[in-house]
Design goal:
- The structure is a single chain.
- By secondary structure, the chain is mainly alpha-helical.
- Helix content is 79%, strand content 0%.
- The protein has four helices and no strands.
- Helix 1 packs antiparallel against helix 3.
- It is elongated and about 45 Å long.
- The termini are far apart.
């Protein structure tokens, strides 16, 4: 029971934060670090949209993971998470540079 409720909470938070970033209302999630350097080097609107899409994908696969129980599905979940994170890092480093 605890595992499913945690997965549901994770999925809902990721979906809400992803939609907020995607629509341009999630600037609060992009705070922190050295913001001045980040603003000079990166296009923040592209960063927010890319992070929003990644969070929505993470929310969707977390929701799907709640209903699967097999070891193969858990490994696939981890692999897909890694692919999303690597894709996001590539997008941020290559496509969001000014």
């Amino acid at each position: 029971m605890m595992d499913k409720s945690f997965g549901l909470i994770l999925a809902v938070i990721a979906l809400i934060a992803g939609v907020m970033l995607l629509t341009g209302h999630g600037d609060i999630f992009m705070k922190g670090g050295n913001a001045d350097v980040r603003k000079k080097l990166y296009d923040e609107k592209k960063m927010a949209k890319g992070c929003g899409i990644a969070l929505i994908l993470i929310g969707v696969i977390s929701a799907v993971d709640m209903f699967t129980t097999g070891l193969v599905f858990k490994i696939a979940y981890i692999v897909v998470l890694l692919i999303i994170i690597i894709g996001l890092l590539y997008f941020l480093r290559v496509k969001c540079k000014k």
